[in-house]
Amino acid sequence: MIINPIxxxxxxxxxxxxxxxxxxxxxxxxVVWFTEILLxxxxxxxxxxxxxxCTILIRLNKDIMINEMVSELKSLLRNPIKINxxxxxxxxxxxxxxxxxxxxxxxxxxxTGYRKNEIIDKHTSGDYLVxxxxxxxxxxxxxxxxxxxxxxxxxxxxxxVPAGSVAIGGTQTGIYPIQSPGGWNIIGRTYLILFLTExxxxxxxxxxxxxxxxxxxxxxYLSSQNSLQ
Length: 229
Known about the structure:
Layout: E1 2-3, E2 6-9, E3 14-18, H1 25-41, E4 46-51, E5 55-60, H2 66-76, E6 81-82, E7 90-96, H3 105-112, H4 116-124, E8 128-133, E9 140-143, E10 158-161, E11 165-169, E12 172-175, E13 180-182, E14 185-189, E15 210-216, H5 218-228
Parallel strand pairs: 7-15
Antiparallel strand pairs: 1-6, 2-3, 3-5, 4-5, 8-9, 8-15, 9-12, 10-13, 11-12, 11-14
């Protein structure tokens, strides 16, 4: 794989690195790889870093000159760099798709025309890749969902979405790691703890991971949740 991104200032303190405009596993691999290079080689230069589908946005520390940093990064990539694909880690996620844990299941059924068991079958059979983490701390944007499950987001977002809620937002699926507002369609919930505020560098799901959902019963959910308390 060969990368050749566009690197340009995005503001007086930030730089945008653009890997084309196509969302794909190949582009994602470039984003992950270059994010690692930045963190390894330029960590002291960077205040924050935000990888996304096709871009990386870096915000510089106040003593770093933006034009010099742009030149440095362009010099790094003056010759195309070949990278090898790594084998992603797969995170298995138990989900209860029943009752109060799936308040938007009826909406997704109505929009897609599928029965509940068909939605569960399709949702648990996706070839999922965590493209990036965003929106709220630890929230994974997961691509690879069966396109026939695509369902528009809620017109009015909920003020409170429980932690662990598994949801569909347009063509994507995701998991709310903490209680927060949200406008995605909730179709289930996992008892897994995705994000710990006291240990933010040890989130369960990370960019570049594969994920695999599997169904559990309400009793299995409650039993496992109680064992974690």
